[in-house]
Design brief:
Blueprint (H helix, E strand, L loop, with lengths): L2 E5 L5 E5 L4 E2 L6 H11 L10 E6 L5 H13 L3 E7 L5 H4 L4 H4 L6 H9 L5 E5 L2 E7 L11 E6 L13 H10 E9 L4 H10 L2 E6 L6 E6 L3
Helix pairs in contact: 1-2, 6-7
Length: 221
Amino acid sequence: MKREIIQTLDGSTTIHLEEWDECYHSKHGAIQEAKHVFIQNGFSLFEDKPISILEIGFGTGLNAFITFLESNEKKQSINYVGVEAYPVAANEVLMMNYVAELGADNYKEVFKKMHESNWDEIIELSDAFTLTKRKQFFQEIDDVETFDLIYFDAFGYRVQPELWSTEIFKRMYDSLKPNGVLVTYAARGVVKRSMIEVGFTVEKLAGPPGKREMFRARKVM
């Protein structure tokens, strides 16, 4: 599948898959989307305590890197697990301009280590941040009450509807601790129905730039 690095409207880059006409991040702003969906409406709910995060669709590592920067500033301990069935090559990811756009030159080596480190190993990015990249299909996830927060950042329903199925969301529900939270950029009715069917309480929130709405789901117990 032909891949092209393109610039999004906030100046940050993403990868465009020509055959699907699908991007790894929003064309309206990769960094803006990540901060709005995953940090503002997810990570910010868990201040001042250690948490475990599962990312569905590790991709370019943008969400993980921004979370690292946020947690480092707040002195917060994070166990971060990123699941990806088809990893992006490290040399391709290192062409992305996230370090510069985030003003994170002091952490350039951290971003590099994130992508050059081995898969399926626990990597210490700092004294308070561990990263495990799991090369795994989403259908294989079998964690039980392990995570406080899930970043659900799979490719869109239009191109991969099977990743937004009831089966997948049941695995997400089971993976969360009681009162855990899942956030995603998606806002389709069919996605909401699948979430509710497996037990989630779902709320609709304002979306990032270029997108009217998004979902946040809770495992209320």
